[in-house]
Structures are given as structure tokens and as C-alpha cells.
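Hi R.,

Here's the chain you asked about this morning:
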Amino acid sequence: MLQFEVQDTGIGMSREETKKIFNSFVQADSSTTRKYGGSGLGLVISEQLVKLMHGEISVKSEKGIGSTFTFTCLLQIDQQHTPSSHSLAELKDKRVLIVDDNEASRTILASLVQGFGMQAQTAKCGEDAYNIIARQQDHYNDHFDLVLMDWRMPGMDGLECAKQICQLKSATPLPAIIMVSAYDQSKVMKGVGSNHLEGYLLKPVQPTVLLNTIQKAMGIYVEEDSTLHHFPKRDDQALSQILGAKVLLVEDIKTNQQIACELLEGLGLHVDIANNGLEAVQAVQKNKYDIVLMDIQMPEMDGHTATLEIRKLNLGYQLPIVAMTANAMKEDQNRSKEVGMNGHINKPISPDELFDTLVEWIKPALREIYHRHDKGNPANIDSELPSKLAGFDLQSALLRVNRKERLLLKLLRDFYREQDNTLPTLIQMIETKSYKKAAYLVHSLIGSIGNLGANQLVTHARALETLFKNNQFDAAVFERFVIEYEVITTSLASISTDNEAKNQTTSIETQESVDWGRAISQSKILLKKLQMGDGNSLQSLSTLENILGNSFAGNQSTLHALVDDFEFEQACIELQKLMDNLH
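And the predicted structure, written out as C-alpha cells:
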């Protein structure tokens, strides 16, 4: 049973007036209707609603002071979506500064974050908040981890305060700042993801939305429950204003093209595709677009260069260009803004984020509505998508293809066919210390496999990409990447059709020559796993056997038997013999 109280500082009522306030068509004072409006039915309806929820409603009031209305209702606890202790553990004892000129708002937010196990302190204006942060930032034990900042306040407003806080020079990390406001959402939203703001909350704040926004702002990863996945928030009015808009999608990876087209065309938008920045520059000179969605890392011409070239053109209209990339770091977003891009969409693509971005940047207009020929569910896919697939979050992947299972199955199979040389190529790049090329290869992998739901692989790949960008290499990070990569390739092999598997086997057996470079690379991966006593060594051996075909059949047979019996030391010796023959 929950109890709610609603308090006001209005005209108040006498004891006699409160006795009849819940009667139909009755107000405390017959003159009230003329002064303040109303029919006298609101409280009657409220009482009926409360009774339907097995509760009671009452009022306490004092003439000239105000009234307090109280009601109770019986509600069930949502066990499924209640935050787990694990999801709250990382927030325990984190310090939050709540900045709002409204005392009630400060009290409510403080109560909510304390319920998450966080420590709350409040400030009633921007100046006070800045001074508090400035005084305590050099004291590690006292520094704040998060600021919940109201926007509209007397004196220094929230945006200015956030800007000044971020300019502080501090020995400790500056706090993440989330803006909280009841209005002018679009102006505040343009600051989200900039140097100053990490998130935005709309008043009144819902506890679950607050928790999710805090976790995201503070970089805390929480595994998402599949039941929480939902389709884009397709506000009918907002959607009607962008229907028929013409979009130029600039993307070099076919899988990403298919997924983005599925989402965009599903919203009733026209989509043209450019495979690189050069094609994009040529396209905007020939056609008028309402928005350009631009990948950054592409062959021929990258997204930043293409944007600079487009901005030099005399188009005669303002063309929004939004970066769509796996580069989520602030410096990457700042670079995009410097070259003239208007916004940023992270990969893997979030349907919600994509929709909100389109609504923000496409000008409302009446256009010819695009009616697509439904090409999304290929008819020749002869099996069903499994309910679970190791290494993949299929629920999030399905959202990106509008729940079309056969299309997702096709994309997964296509990726499996196309990824054969990825790992051997990456190993060769590492051996020659071609780290820039390796970073590009891993980045491309993140963009494509991330959209297919391989979240864990994306996490390891991002760590690897960061190392490569800094001209560094870490064997432990690479090992984690390789292990997860083999998990997903093994899963994908399980959903390839019998005909595909047969054709692959036949092609290996009928090759005039073996891909020796790939065989050597795979042998090195297997050797390292055997030396570590990795139980997944058999999967790596199977990959090597497919590469070698019937070559060195005797060595392969002995090696397979040893690995199968977990005789890893002897298997290492046998593998070394095989590797000597490969060189």
C-alpha cells in the first residue's frame, strides 16, 4: 500500500467545507467556480479512481493557509524491472550535488538518489554549486562524482554553471553533469554529449529513468534485460513531420547499410546510399537531401573530409550532416563538430537515438510519402533464427531490423561468410606492427558486428582499437578479443545452412593450394591456447583443420586426439612439428 500527499498553499477550506468537497457538482465556495473555474467533479472522479485501486482519499485544510490531499492505493511490486543489487552496487556512496532553486525539487531528487545508495548534498543556485565544487575538487575523498543541475535558475543558470565547472583545473576527476529541466528541451539537448553535459532529464523525473541516466553518465555498464527492449518512441506528430524526407546514408559496410535502410525506410523515408565520402560529395551536388548520415572511417574519402568538401559547396540551403560512427569519445565528437557536422549517432545504432536525431534535424514539411517494396524478409532463408545464440544479444539486434528474423538470420550468415580472413589479417598486422591499419580493421568490425548484437566482442574490440590508435599492443587484451571472436564464429557456424557447410568443405578439399599464411596464423593462435590450457582449444583446432583440408592428415589426426584428451603439453609438441612443416 502506497500513500501519496499533494499539498498546496491556496485559499484553503473550513472544516464544514471539507465535509462536502467530495460530493458531485459541489465546490467549497459557490463563488469559487466563477473565480477559479471548474465543475466540481474532479475530486469525485479522483475518489472513484482511488477506490478502484482499493484505497482511500481524504483532505486536511486550513482557511487561508492551504490544503493537503492524501490518498492510498494498493500496487504490486514490479519484480522484473526492479533494479538489482548488482546494478546499484557501483553507485553506493558516490557523491551527488543536486542544484535547484526549488526546495521541493531538491528534496525529491535527494530522496531518489539516496534510495540508490548515493550520498546527496544540495545547492539552491548556480553560484553556490560552483563554489562547492571548486572548494572540494582537490580533496579526493570529498570530490563529487555527479551533479544534477536545474537549468533555469536566478543568477547563473544551469548551462553556464556546467560550463564553468568543466573549466576548473582539478587534481581529481570533474563530476559528470546531468541537466534537469521542465521545458526548452531542444536547446538543452544540443549540449548533451558536449564537453559540459552527460545527460538530460525531463521533469517530473521518473526513478527508473533517473537511474538509467545516472549509470550512463557515469560510464557504468549494466546488462540490459531483454524485456526492457522497445521500439523507437514514434510520436505520431513528430513522425508525420518527417515522413517522406530524403536521407543520404554514407556507409561503406554492407551490413550497416542494410540495417540502417531497414530502420529509415521503416519510418517512411527515402534513402540513397553512398559507399564513401567521395560518392557523398557527388550525391549532394546532384540531389537535394533533408539530412546526411555520415560514417567517419571509409575508403576513398573519410567522413570528416567529405563534410568539409560539402560545406564548401553553394547548395542554397542548410543541409544537416550527422556523424554515424563507433567513435564515441568526446574528442571524436568535437572533431566532427569542428568540420561542420551537426550531431552524432553512436554505433551500434540505437533505434531510439536515430529517431530522435532525425526529428531534431529534419525540417518539418509535407512531402511525398515513401512506400517501400518490402524486401526485408528474404524468402529463400530456409530455417528459423534460434531463440538464443552464444555471444549475441539477438533481442537488440532484432530491433535494428524491425523484428524481421529472417533478415537478421541472413545478415548473420553473410557476416560469417565474409569474416574468414579478419583474424589472420589482424594477426599479420600485429606482427608487422601496422597498428593504424589494425585500428581501422577493428573499427570496421565494431560497426558491423555491433549492429548484429555481439556486445561482448564489441567491448573487447573497443579496448583493442584504443591500444592500436595509441600505437600500442597488449597480448592479454588481444587474447580476450580472440576468445570472444571464436565464440561468435562458432555460433555463426552453427546457423549456417547444410548446403553452405557442404560447399565450404568441398571448396577446401578441392583447393589446388592451401592458404599457408592463414594456416600459420591460426596455428599460432592454437599454440597459445594450448600453452594456457584453454578448454576452447578444440574450436581453434577445428578452424585450423578446415584451413588445411587433407594436408598433413597424419599430424592432424594425432593432434586432434591429444587435444580431445586434454593432453595439452603433448599437443604443443605435435603442433610444433606441424608448424615446422608449414614454414
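The two ends are 75 Å apart (CA to CA).

Let me know if you need anything else.
M.
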